[in-house]
Design brief:
A hairpin with a 2-residue loop joins β17 and β18. 35% of the residues are buried. It is built from one helix and 19 strands.
Length: 203
């Protein structure tokens, strides 16, 4: 944690289709963003939900080509340590997933926000769709359905489990006991675990 900002996920995937892997990570806390980095450390794409900046002049070392941030988080407090921040400060970006939900060979970036939205972006961080859910999502996972279709599963604070298709449309919904903490793959669907200790397989 630095300056009330932290990162919980790092993916190394080819998200822009150039045959070379990129690094995808989020920063959440005082300021919130998702960035795609090229090899060599120069960011090539970033999502900013406050003030879009036009970088049509081309890539610039150390600056994103596309820049849209998710905006500010909680204001920093003085005389606190990192453990206090981790335990008490709300996290805007709850989860991050990188996978090919469309089945076209290109991977997308999915973000779960504490505001109750699930957002999808292409490999250059351009928005694809946004879907609201009834409770703040806690975890995301792309799984294959029994029919062979790829689906995005999101678990919520209120125990709801949402299943979305490649267009962000809600195609399934279930409810479990407690806040969803983990989603895992299963041969015939997926597995849900909750803060109450429940483990349940779903299709």
């Amino acid at each position: 944690i630095w300056g009330n900002e932290t990162s919980h996920h790092i993916f190394v995937e080819d998200v822009d289709g150039d045959g070379e892997p990129e690094l995808i990570r989020e920063i959440t806390g005082l300021w919130n963003r998702v960035t795609v980095w090229k090899q060599g450390g120069a960011p090539t794409g970033s999502e900013n939900y406050l003030d879009p900046i036009d970088f049509t002049r081309g890539p610039q070392e150390g600056r994103p080509i596309y820049n849209i941030h998710f905006g500010p988080g909680p204001a920093p407090r003085l005389a606190i340590n990192n453990e206090f921040i981790r335990e008490t400060q709300p996290i805007l970006i709850r989860d991050l997933e990188v996978a090919d939900l469309h089945g076209d060979g290109r991977k997308q970036i999915f973000v779960a926000l504490a505001s109750g939205w699930i957002k999808a972006f292409d490999g250059r961080c351009r928005p694809l769709w946004s879907t609201p859910v009834t409770a703040p999502p806690t975890v995301l996972k792309v799984v294959k359905s029994t029919a062979g279709q790829m689906r995005l599963v999101a678990g919520g604070e209120d125990g709801n489990v949402f299943v979305l298709d490649g267009r962000g449309q809600l195609v399934g919904r279930a409810e479990v006991d407690g806040c969803v903490t983990t989603l895992g793959e299963w041969p015939d669907g997926f597995v849900v675990t909750t803060a109450c200790g429940m483990v349940q397989a779903m299709q």
